[in-house]
Fold:
Amino acid sequence: MKHLLGIEQLSREEIEAILDRAESFAEVGKRDIKKVPTLRGRTIVSLFYESSTRTSSSFELAAKRLSADLVSIKAAGSSVDKGESLKDTVATLSAYEPAAIVIRHPYAGAAQMVAEWSEAAVINAGDGKHEHPSQALLDLFALRRRLDSLEGKKIWIVGDVLHSRVARSNLIAFKAMGAEVTVCGPPTLIPRDIERLGCAVSHSLDELDEADVVYVLRLQRERMKESFIPSIREYVTHFQIDSRRLGPRQILMHPGPVNRGIELSGDAIDSPQSLITEQVASGLMVRMAILYELLAVGGERPAPPVGDESPPPTPIGQPA
Ligand code: CP
Structure:
């Protein structure tokens, strides 16, 4: 695996290898010294053109826990503000010979373009409405820890599916692991032909009881240039998940950030069924595993210069 551009490109075996690797980083995370030397001397660029709290912080912490050198760029406040193009920004940062570039961009396909322009391994941290593969992997990891297996489980993805890269990546990932997926929301927020991805579609929560997992999506008002719902109040009435709609055996998930009081009520967020905090914690372990798989296992390392005595990738059991 040279890049992580989308879940679509991963086999079930590759997904499981990343999840197994993340499990070993969970063990490292319990130690007093949580850092390993695996990526010592290698550089990781984190390049975010859209706002982020979870993805940027967990990739940056993952790089530091693996002892990499980190360059963190947010488009706001960088030379992007002065009109520098994505291509020129990537060329500039490539001068540091990064081993990996983690990129979030509003344009679907941006990560693929960066992969074509750079020698680095490219990780798609969200490209427009297209994909958010590391989110899907961390969600699988959090769910696997709670349920063991997704085989035959019913997962409902509820909310603004139309604008959601998480919906697309997770639908593909859940299906790959054997789950049955239903997407649910008002017709204006469900993409036409989404059934082609192998899911069922519902425009009401009437049959939500059948779900083992209720995966709620944020209403992405920043991506809505027209009116997709009559009003927030009506959306809340018909689609908000609250503690009355959530059964005691159901697991509640949300990728964050949550519009508290819109797609989720406060009591649902804070309920025992909520896996939201575990999702965030899983992000660190899974993103360490992604960097490890790309750079220490599957990445093509250039030959070291003559006389270089740097060690081969270190097994993750050894502290830095
Ligand atoms: N889920 C997710 O991508 O969150 P951030 O936007 O905070 O990174």
